[in-house]
Structures are given as structure tokens and as C-alpha cells.
Specification:
mainly beta, two-stranded antiparallel ribbon, 67 residues, three-stranded antiparallel β-sheet, 0% helix
């Protein structure tokens, strides 16, 4: 996700028609142990990019809707 503005932007949610809910998480590894925590908001600095990946910020689809 890219912030092309001169201001810090705050992501405070996500949605997808393919999911009952789409939740923002952060995955980290500390001392060899992986952990995942809910993130309520995520700030994106001016002219910066945040990448969603298995390590770092992720989006978790809960209650997938099958077509």
C-alpha cells in the first residue's frame, strides 16, 4: 500500500466481499518464536509504501464466502 501524499495516512480497517471480515495483523518473530497480534490502526508515512507479507503486516480473511 503506497501513500503518495505529503501527510501520514492511517489505515483503520479493511474489507473484501470475499470475506465475512478482513482483519489487520502483524506477524513478528522474537527469540525464535513467531507471534501474531491484532492491529487496530496502521500509519503509513508520507510517500512511503507498506508491503503485506507473511512476516510483517498481513490481512486475515475470516469467514470466507464461497461462490
Amino acid at each position: 500500500m503506497h501513500n503518495g501524499t505529503a501527510k501520514t495516512l492511517t489505515l483503520n480497517g479493511a474489507a473484501s466481499p470475499a470475506c465475512g471480515s478482513l482483519r489487520l495483523h502483524k506477524c513478528e518473530t522474537m527469540s525464535g518464536m513467531a507471534s501474531m497480534s491484532d492491529v487496530k490502526t496502521m500509519e503509513i508515512p508520507p510517500r512511503d509504501t507498506v508491503t503485506f507479507s507473511p512476516v510483517g503486516y498481513t490481512l486475515m480473511c475470516r469467514a470466507p464466502r464461497h461462490r
